[in-house]
C-alpha cells in the first residue's frame, strides 16, 4: 500500500479548520482553496492574511471562520508578519518558553496583495529564508472591491478599470508571472495548484510545509462573480484553465522542474475563454494572440521540465 | 458568543479586537442566501464523497448510512455538488417549490 498513492475523497483529512458560515459568494473556489489548504496543514498552523476577499468574508469582527491562529494584515504585510512570527517562535523555542514542535507558518494573500502591493515584502521574506509557506490565491483581479484590474489580470479580460468597449478590448497587458518570480529567488519549493485538482493541491501544500525554508504556492481560484460565469461552473473553469495550458500545474523543487499534470488532450484556449463574461467581447484576432502566448509559455515550461 | 451578534457593543470586544472564540462564524446562517437547494437521490448515490470535497461552504455532511447530504443551514445553493457529482444523483430544486 505504501508504494501507491491512493486518491479518494473519502481518505482525505476529515477535520475542517475553515468553518461554514463564512460569507463568500456562492461557488467561491477561493474559499474552497482555503479550506483545502487548511486541511493539508492541520491545526499546528499560524496564518497571516492580507486584506482581500478572503479576509473580508472570513472575519467580520465579532465572528471568525478560522480554527487556527490568524492575524489580519494590511495589503503589504503578510510575508513580513509571518516571517516575524517564525523568527519570534524560533527564539521562544530556543529559550524554552514554548515547547518545541513543528509549526507551519503560512502567509496568505490574493493576487493584489501578492503581485502588486506586497511584492517587496514577499521578495524579502523569500530571500531571508524563513521556514514559511506563502500561498497566493489568484482570482485575477481585485474582486473584493468590485473587480478592478491587477497586474495578475490576463490579457483581454474586461474589468471595471479596464472595461471592454468600442475603444478598448479590456486589459492591455499580459499577466505577471508570479510563479517564475518566486522561482527566481532560488527557494526550495515553488508550485502552482488549482482547487479543481484537489489531491494535487493537498500534496503540494503538505510538501511545501514539510520542506525546510520558504515555499511559494500559486493557486488559481476561480471567481464566478468577477469572471462572469455560473456559480456551479467554478470547478469546471479551473479544469479548463489547466487543460488549455493557460495555467499549467507544475512544481519546482530545489530548482528542478516537474510537470504534475499533462493534459490528455490540449484544448484550444477558446473553450476556456468563450464561457466567461469577462472575455466574451474578444475577436478571433485577440483569441489567436492569446493562443500564441499560451503556447509559447507552455513550451518554455515543457522544455524546462524535460531538461531536468 | 453569549449574545446575538447585533446586540454586541464595542465595550464587549477584547482589547485589540481579538476574537477569542474559534470558528464562531457558524453562528451566521448562510442558508438564507439560497434560491436553489440540492436534493440527493439516495438510490443512485455511490457514496464517493466528491460533493463533500468540492463544497466551498463546508456544508456537505456524511449521513449515518454513508450518503452525503447538504446541511441546509449553511448551503448557499451554488450547485457545484450537482455539477461535479460523477453519477448525477444530485439535482438542484428551486426553493419556491
Folded structure, characterized:
The complex is a heterodimer of chains A (308) and B (97). Chain A has one domain (12-307): Rossmann fold. The two termini of chain A are 29 Å apart. Chain A has helices at residues 29-41, 53-58, 78-94, 111-117, 119-128, 178-183, 198-210, 224-227, 234-243, 269-274, 284-307, and strands at 45-49, 70-72, 104-110, 133-138, 189-193, 215-220, 250-253, 256-259. Chain A is globular and about 65 Å long. Chain A contains eleven helices and eight strands. With 308 residues, chain A is an alpha/beta fold. Chain B is α+β, with helices and mostly antiparallel strands. Chain B has two helices and four strands, in the order E-H-E-E-H-E. Chain B has helices at residues 50-54, 80-84, and strands at 36-40, 60-62, 68-70, 90-94. In chain B, the strands form two sheets. In chain B, strands 1-4 form a two-stranded antiparallel sheet. Chain B has a two-stranded antiparallel sheet with strand order 2-3. In chain B, strand 2 (60-62) and strand 3 (68-70) form a beta hairpin. The N and C termini of chain B lie far apart (35 Å). Classes of the chains: A alpha/beta (308), B alpha+beta (97). Chain A binds chain B through residues 8-10, 12, 16, 18-24, 26-29, 31-32, 35, 58-59, 61-67, 195, 198, 224, 230-236, and chain B through 1, 5, 8, 13, 17, 19, 21-30, 33, 47-50, 52-59, 71, 73-74, 76-80, 82-84, 92.
Notable traits:
heterodimer, A: 308 residues, alpha/beta, Rossmann fold, eight-stranded mixed beta sheet, 11 helices, B: 97 residues, alpha+beta, Alpha-Beta Plaits, two-stranded antiparallel ribbon, 4 strands, elongated
Provide a brief overview of the structure.
In chain A, 38% of the residues lie in helices and 13% in strands.
Number of helices of chain B: 2
The name of the CATH architecture of chain A is 3-Layer(aba) Sandwich
Strand proportion of chain B: 15-25%
Extract low-pLDDT stretches of chain B: none
Bin the strand percentage of chain A. 5-15%
Order of helices and strands of chain B: EHEEHE
Query: What's the mean pLDDT score of chain B?
Result: 88
Mind telling me the CATH class of chain A? Alpha Beta
Distance between the termini of chain B: 35 Å
Rg of chain A (C-alpha, Å): 19 Å
Strand order of the largest sheet of chain A: 2-1-3-4-6-5-7-8
Q: What is the number of domains of chain A?
A: 1
Shape annotation of chain A: globular
Amino acid at each position: 500500500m505504501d508504494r501507491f498513492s491512493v486518491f479518494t475523497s473519502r481518505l482525505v483529512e476529515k477535520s475542517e479548520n475553515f468553518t461554514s458560515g463564512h460569507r463568500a459568494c456562492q461557488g467561491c473556489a477561493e474559499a474552497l482553496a482555503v479550506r483545502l489548504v487548511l486541511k493539508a496543514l492541520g491545526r499546528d498552523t499560524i496564518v497571516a492574511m492580507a486584506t482581500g476577499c478572503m479576509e473580508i468574508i472570513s472575519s467580520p469582527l465579532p465572528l471568525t471562520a478560522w480554527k487556527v491562529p490568524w492575524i489580519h494584515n494590511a495589503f503589504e504585510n503578510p510575508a513580513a508578519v509571518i516571517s516575524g512570527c517564525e523568527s519570534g517562535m524560533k527564539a521562544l523555542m530556543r529559550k524554552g518558553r514554548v515547547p518545541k514542535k513543528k509549526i507551519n507558518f503560512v502567509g496568505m494573500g490574493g493576487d493584489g496583495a501578492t503581485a502588486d502591493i506586497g511584492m517587496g515584502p514577499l521578495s524579502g521574506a523569500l530571500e531571508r529564508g524563513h521556514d514559511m509557506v506563502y500561498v497566493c490565491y489568484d482570482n485575477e483581479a481585485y474582486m473584493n472591491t468590485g473587480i478592478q484590474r491587477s497586474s495578475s489580470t490576463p490579457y483581454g479580460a474586461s474589468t471595471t478599470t479596464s472595461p471592454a468597449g468600442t475603444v478598448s478590448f479590456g486589459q492591455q497587458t499580459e499577466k505577471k508571472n508570479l510563479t517564475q518570480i518566486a522561482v527566481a529567488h532560488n527557494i526550495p519549493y515553488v508550485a502552482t495548484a488549482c482547487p479543481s485538482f484537489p489531491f494535487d493541491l493537498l500534496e503540494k501544500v503538505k510538501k511545501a510545509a514539510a520542506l525546510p525554508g520558504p515555499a511559494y504556492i500559486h493557486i488559481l481560484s476561480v471567481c464566478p462573480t468577477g469572471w462572469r460565469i455560473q456559480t456551479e461552473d467554478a470547478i469546471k473553469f479551473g479544469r479548463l484553465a489547466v487543460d488549455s495550458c493557460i495555467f499549467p500545474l507544475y512544481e519546482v523543487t530545489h530548482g528542478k522542474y516537474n510537470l504534475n499534470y499533462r493534459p490528455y488532450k490540449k484544448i484550444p484556449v477558446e473553450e476556456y475563454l468563450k464561457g466567461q463574461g469577462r472575455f466574451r467581447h474578444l475577436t478571433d484576432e485577440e483569441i489567436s494572440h492569446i493562443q500564441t502566448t499560451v503556447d509559447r509559455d507552455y513550451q518554455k515550461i515543457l522544455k524546462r521540465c524535460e531538461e531536468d | 458568543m453569549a449574545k446575538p451578534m447585533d446586540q454586541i457593543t464595542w465595550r464587549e470586544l477584547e482589547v485589540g479586537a481579538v476574537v477569542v472564540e474559534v470558528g464562531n462564524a457558524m453562528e451566521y446562517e448562510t442558508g438564507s442566501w439560497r434560491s436553489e437547494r440540492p436534493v440527493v437521490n439516495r438510490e443512485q448515490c455511490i457514496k464517493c464523497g466528491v460533493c463533500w470535497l468540492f463544497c466551498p461552504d463546508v456544508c456537505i455532511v456524511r449521513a449515518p448510512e454513508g450518503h452525503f447530504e447538504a446541511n441546509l443551514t449553511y448551503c448557499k445553493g451554488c450547485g457545484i455538488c450537482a455539477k461535479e457529482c460523477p453519477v448525477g444523483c444530485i439535482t438542484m430544486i428551486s426553493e419556491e417549490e
